[in-house]
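Memo to structure team: turn this sequence into structure tokens by end of day. - J.P.
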Amino acid sequence: MYLVDLSESFDPKVVRSFYQQIMVPMFPLEEERDTLEYFLNGINPAGPGIGEEEVLHVVCCYADPMACGSASDAVEWVPHTEVPKNCQLAGAVCFEYYMTPNITLLTYIAALPSFRGRGIGRKLVDAVEEYSCEDAMEYNSIAQCRAIFAETHGHGLIDDVMDCTARQKVLKSYGFEHIVFPYVQPPLAKGGKSAEDLILLVKVLSEHEVTTAADNVRTLNGQLVYQFLEAFWPYEEYEDVKSREYYQAAVDYLSAVDTLELSTCVPWTQVPFNQLPRAAAAAIAASA
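Reply from structure team:
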């Protein structure tokens, strides 16, 4: 099994192949998928990138379709030019490192159906963690990234790719927990629609960000979530985000609470968006 960082020995043809083989079929909703240009610009070392404070990574996994692979298979990092000819693209992960808050967002992860059950997803998540800590050292001179955030659909949503509850169980097995917080994803493109059917997950890398109560309930530092939202919602590109109801409600809520509960009890259910203003109001009143 081979892992390839697409920003090394950058080749637009390889990026296009990744996009057509992984992104389009595995993330069929166009409004929930970044464009090919986003990836071409973002991972090209000579390109404009995705922002002054963000670093985009795309890691692809290649495997022999005829081999009886398993989760214990060794992984070798190689340039795309050194992937054996008998190997095919089997999966990929995309993630963004945000320098100022020292956090990462896992934006896409997928293994093609014919390669599932071989531990590819776990190896890709391990790569995210490894790169995130390397980025933390490079850009912040800190040995550890604070956390990896991710989004997934809430329980009950039906899509044509994978059962949502099964997807949640897989993400839980990778170490992700559900942040019990009414979450809305901002539009991926200017003028686009926000996504209110997603939930926010976190894989905590620094245990300083978590408190465990006597009843074993884990809670997350609320400021970590606020700093993630500040980094993820690109205000310069989408000037209207700050004026939207969900933005102000989220800010009010997070400014009024110190911690947010974490859940590992799948299925994870979306906290309805229309509860956010009421939750914020209650939290603000309680803290007054």
